[in-house]
What does this fold into?
Amino acid sequence: MTVTDGPASAGLAAPGSQAPPILEAREVSKTFPGVKALQDVSITLRGGEVHALVGENGAGKSTLIKLLTGVYQLDAGRLLHRGNQVSFADPKAAQAAGISTIYQEVNLVPLQSGARNLYLGREPRTRLRLVDYQKMNHDAKALLDDFAIDADPTVPVATLALGAQQMICIARAMSLDANVVIMDEPTSSLESREVETLFGLIERLKASGVAVVYVSHRLDELYRICDQVTVLRDGRLVHTGPIGELPRRQLVATMLGRELLEQHARSSVTAPTDEADGDTPVLQAEHLSRRGVLHDVSVTIRPGEVVGLGGLLGAGRSETAKAVLGAQILDSGSVTVDGVTIRGGSPARSIRAGAVLLPEDRKAEGILPNLSIRDNIVLAALPRLSTWGLFSDRAARKLVDTFMTRLNIKAYGPGQKVGTLSGGNQQKVLLARWLCLEPKVLMLDEPTRGIDVGAKAEVRRLIDELAEQGLGVLLISSETEELVDGSHRILVLRDGSIVAELSGDRLTESELVQAIAGDVTDV
Amino acid sequence: MSETPTPAVPEAPGRPARSVDRSKVASFLQDNGVYVALAVLVGYNALFTNFWFTASNLKLQLVLVAPILIVALGMALVIGTEGIDLSVGATMAISASVIGQGLDAGLSVPVIIVGVLLAGMLVGAIAGTLVAFFEVQPIVATLALLVAGRGIAVLMQASTLSVSDPTLLKFGSGSWLGIQAPFWDALVPVIIVAFVVRRTVFGRRIVVIGDNVRASYLSGIPVRRTLLTVYIVSGLLAAWAGLVVTTFTSTNDPSTNGLGYELFAITAVVVGGTALSGGRVRILGTIAGALVMQVLRSTLAFHNFTDAVTQMVTAVIIIVAVLVQRKRARS
It folds into this structure.
């Protein structure tokens, strides 16, 4: 799965592959009040091809997808479906034409069963026009089996792993006779094993002549499964062609519109802090246990140290961070932040002591989407920005201005609603929320997930910088490269227990993968 | 921009070329529709309704709107947290009963007032505890109190259902600077609540919780304490409104005091431009919302329509307000 910089390894992009296009956009444009989201962009999707759509956040990928799927209407340009000009009045019309979208966030009815989700709106009926559950469950099982998807269609989908939920989305698309399947960052919440299953599915889609659009920030994946690539920048088309003819480095440079930022210098971080036993740890979490979740997990972080937390989804990484924050119920264990032992855990207490968490699920647990950047940043700092319960607007404005500059947050102004920002900028707003508290321990749960390459590099650089200033960092990431490059030490979790600690010479991706995989040999 | 005639629902998303203007109009109406509606109503009456646009009638409108406005203030805070408080009408009834009992027992006026306010806070505390600590849905928790509260109030009903204590009556029937007491009774809480919402940490917490309660909790916001406080404040304001109604009408009848007020208050808040989904508290909008309902009722009464007509027109206004709101969510 390693891909070199060379053009060699790309898929079957035979230059003359001229299957007739299924869906074509010709010089389409879309303008929102004040923003030209898309200008004269053309894309041609052919059956049996996987077409990578890449660009930084805000480049216009989502807008293009929404135009193709009838969520938005074109301002200019044409849309051709199998050679005929079409206009999709709404997503339903696009779906009827066979265009299906698999969104970044799984798009299912959480409390309903997999079978109900698969047949939503077209349930098989009994003679009395009631839902024929027996047939529905049976059909669902057959459908999932057909795609080799290992998921029980009779339980509420919310109880399934995210990967399984996504597979159900894809199965639903396929059962709707899709001829174009658009996948928006489908792997962002999948484990590596699930990614393999997904890729198997994509191969099957290709074989059956479906045109696949694949949006992802993960270059490995693009080079592995895509045939064509279209690069957008600032709402314009900057490159389109077979992905094999565009070397990796050049692809990134095209996306960013500048020479690639200096790569993360591994040596600068890996230089371990001296065996600084003299330093009192900023975080001492000891023997954290919760039945079925965590077993005797202990984490110690010294000032200036970045401790990585590796493991598969559900191994207990996020739960460990939540336990330190006081948001995870524990059966036993103790948490000491900067010398203060926190009793009767609650986020308010942990935060006061200096431990803060950038949560994994930015939308559900992080941002206040309808409030301004200013409100979002000062959220946790309210007490320190006030006297006698009276809030000081002036102090808040100053703080917000400082951090918007320091973290390079791109927005119209501090009054912009956070829900309208790109993922990378939302993440920076959340970082600002925590950094303005001058914390002692910064816990980052998947800090670079779903944000563009530029913002990713910025966030990683910031983490190094903060550690140098003496902050203790707990870094959780599913990207082994990010974890190995960014951490001084990695603790590996499996099934709620720490199974390995990697440091020094053993701090490599292969060691990490092996530790994560454990006895399971086929990962 | 301000000459938009009526708060009519803007048309569905149309041709792109003109959509910019439309969305401007739409967002203007979302933010200011209630003021436009109020201006239109007052303007209409000034031109076409005899004897309406007079100082004495205008003052009367400000007096009549007072109890609903007081209750709506608390409701706006609760709705800001994505909650709802159906118990306020029952709390007003309890307020009337406490006054009656206090007068029966010969207590002094200050003691009675303190008792009324404490009773309101107690009802709010029960609602707040159910919502914040037992995580009962606000509509269910306060519905239970709506049903039980009025029952308790009627059980506690005093021997006489009319108030004659002159000191107490000053709160509803006195006047100052030529305007009757209820106006002043409402003005004080309006100023306090507006100040709290704009300038205090507590006020910030309300909208923050309303927008994303999980994120607020993980950011160290004392969610439970804040919710509890919000419901206590709502109960307190409802009890105060109950006292204003009692002293304005000289009647402490718990079976009528505050009847239906929970719905009037919600209407005022919604018409004032606050979405039930929380995350926002609009005090000025709520005041205007309450005034729109009051002026509407008065207009129809001046033109000899029955209360039934008023109710139907009110329903239309609620729906228009919600439709205008919904455009916001979509744009």
User: Anything to note?
Assistant: Confidence is low (pLDDT under 50) at residues 1-18 of chain B.
